[in-house]
Design a protein that fits this description.
The structure is a homodimer. Chain A is built from ten helices and 15 strands. Chain A is of the alpha+beta class. Chain A has two domains: 251 residues, 4-Layer Sandwich (L-amino peptidase D-ALA esterase/amidase), CATH 3.60.70; 115 residues, ArgJ beta chain, C-terminal domain (Ubiquitin-like (UB roll), Roll), CATH 3.10.20. Chain A has a six-stranded mixed beta sheet. In chain A, strands 3-9-8-7-6 form a five-stranded mixed beta sheet, with helices on both faces. In chain A, strands 1-2-4-5 form a four-stranded mixed beta sheet. In chain A, a hairpin with a 2-residue loop joins strand 11 and strand 12. The longest helix of chain A is centred in the middle third of the chain and has 21 residues. The radius of gyration of chain A is 21 Å and the shape is globular. Chains A, B: This is Arginine biosynthesis bifunctional protein ArgJ. Chains A, B: Belongs to the ArgJ family. Chains A, B: Its EC number is 2.3.1.35, 2.3.1.1.
């Protein structure tokens, strides 16, 4: 179950003909209320796609009636014409739903630098609007219509004892190093919550979930996470409790993104602890996550911890080389400035690998989720646009 | 010709048994003077190998009689025992040459986290000292003995009209993103120059050569570039003229490093111009050079400029998206905020690719040299230590 899990939402996913071969490529998620509270976080890349610029603008009101999403084209680096296409998409959705365009967010994902085929997209909006329903299947259709190189839909749903829930879907398989956030995700809830609290909860949740996934360092031009609250449960939530459940839902989606990222044969969790600040822990985790020599060693199931030491030594963070301890899958390989165990003692042959770096300097920690660098990644990404 | 080109130098390269299979693995370069002026630049990685710590210390005197280098073991992350091994190596060289250990620099390259096999290394020093000569072949032997995954020796030599010259060798094939400098290089000259001028010239030359090579972002624990001046030509050089020729020699070596880097099927020059500062130009060039999505697209000969736009947008530098122009192999693909030419017009099928990013904001420029990300890189690096 995903966006249609909470009460007050309908969804649809159709094949509009933006992608070749009749695959679903247009999704619509509608909030029927009674409330239409919303919040969003967006890519930090200076190069922002037209739909990001549009959605950032409409989100200033913290109110959304609908989100329209397409795959097959990112509508990024497309100039004023591309922005007009996004605007026209929102206008079209507004027209068929009888709402204002300012209440419609737009998300796009796919190849950068191509214009949207509007002659396919606009009729697709009609088709999507005509098929809107609140069923689980319709939620899955929407989650499917946003996929690009993903191999499967990513959905999550969490219920709360007090009678409300949070649902969501996400897509993302490459160009995946959110900050914030290298993919598209739409979350829904029937909780009653103020726009300010919703915004704060979303920022808190994404900071420790989507922002800690780093597959290839590639913060994209289109990253967007939106949360829509219908208030349909009639339950006014405690913001802290809402943040907790939202974080859990986001983390569920992030685990699915990690597992399905391009070419991944390993999922790698890099935990940095004993840091003087959380920022230091994140910086070190990220630099290890993005290091191609670490990533290829992990692909080869090779506990070559020297590469981890090399990578962390170039992080903009406080470290004391003689204090650092490095463990892989529970075996400490480096400690007190020298080899602690023979690397052969760490078995990295399974799909999941845990790297733990203990700086032994402070009290802060963070875990970055990553993957290996495989032939599959190279294969998939050397032939994407052509 | 390399380090034995300039007058006053002898070299040797022998198989000491540090590597398996009888490959050359120990090099010695000796400065017979009359002067022994020297300078060095070292890795900026916080994790520094024992030989780097040692050589930084001895270089404070700006005087070197000899450099001893080994491949097959980096002697990094080896604790106090590893430092003692480096010290003992310098002592051994000092003893056989009849000089002070404080006049001997040590360089190591190879796997991180392993101790040096001193029972092979120390007899190797005797063998190397016994075979020291000033011939071209002996220079090549030394250049060969430092190689790891390199497929060939890298040597350079430049003569000056006034009767002096500069020679050098370098090694480096992976973990290659100097700052300063992801590899080992020894340069020699028979020019007469003060220690201060030599140091300044080396810093100026490496800043625009070795520091602008970025294959995989992996600044290593052992990076060292040394320059030794014998004064044997009897010519007192103009420092500016010396810096010019030293830069040319370094650039020659860097081009060889770029061309021979692990798994490279393409050499890629990324020129960033119109930047508000040189630092901005370098930062953008580097982030594009390290981006796996750009690198895999280049491997596929795919002018997917959207990935270049994505990468530069995440650089810590000043950009105006609507002003940026991106060209590959002479064809402008993106300008004025939108597609400028069909990507099919840029032919990237050859081995060399030129990416030019014009920010159109200022007067500064820099070129970063890089390579693609290929199956060969993944293959080579997934099985290095095991």
């Amino acid at each position: 179950m995903s966006v249609t899990g909470p009460a007050g939402f309908r969804a649809a996913g159709v094949a509009a003909g933006i992608k070749d071969a009749g695959a679903k490529d247009l999704a619509l998620v509608v909030n029927d209320g009674p409330r239409q509270t919303a919040a969003g976080v967006f890519t930090t890349n200076k190069v922002k796609a037209a739909p990001v610029l549009w959605s950032q603008q409409v989100l200033q009101e913290r109110k959304l009636r609908a989100v329209v999403l397409n795959s097959g084209c990112a509508n990024a680096c497309t100039g004023p014409g591309g922005f007009q296409d996004t605007h026209a998409t929102a206008e079209k959705v507004a027209e068929v739903l009888g709402v204002g365009a300012i209440e419609v967010a737009v998300c796009s994902t796919g190849l950068i630098g191509e214009r949207l085929p509007m002659d396919a997209l606009l009729p697709g909006v009609d088709a999507a609007a005509a098929s809107l329903e609140a069923t689980e299947q319709h939620g899955l259709d929407a989650a499917t219509a946003v996929l690009t190189t993903d191999s499967r839909a990513k959905q999550a749903h969490r219920g709360h004892d007090e009678g409300w829930s949070i649902g969501g879907f996400a897509k993302g398989a490459g160009m995946l190093a959110p900050n914030m956030a290298t993919m598209l995700s739409v979350l829904t809830t029937d909780a009653e919550i103020s726009g300010e609290d919703l915004d704060e909860a979303l920022r808190a949740a994404t900071k420790v979930t989507f922002d800690r996934l780093d597959v290839d360092g590639g913060t994209s031009t289109n990253d967007t996470v939106l949360v829509l609250a219908s208030g349909a449960s009639g339950v006014r939530v405690d913001p802290a409790e809402f943040t907790r459940l939202l974080t859990e839902t986001c983390q569920d989606l992030v685990r699915q993104l990690q597992d399905d990222s391009e070419g991944a044969t390993k999922t790698i969790d890099i935990t940095v602890r004993g840091a003087v600040s959380e920022a230091d822990a994140v910086a070190i985790g990220r630099i290890v996550a993005e290091d191609n020599l670490v990533k290829t060693a992990m692909f080869g199931s090779d506990p070559n911890w020297g590469r981890i030491a090399m990578a962390l030594g170039r992080a903009p963070a406080e470290i004391d080389v003689d204090e650092v301890a490095i463990a892989t899958n529970g075996v400490t390989l480096y400690a007190d400035g020298a080899t602690a165990s023979d690397r052969g003692e760490a078995d990295l042959s399974g799909r999941h690998i845990e790297i733990v770096i203990d700086l032994q300097l402070g009290e802060h920690a963070a875990t970055i989720l990553s993957t290996d660098l495989s032939h599959g990644y190279v294969e998939e990404n050397s032939a994407y646009s052509s």
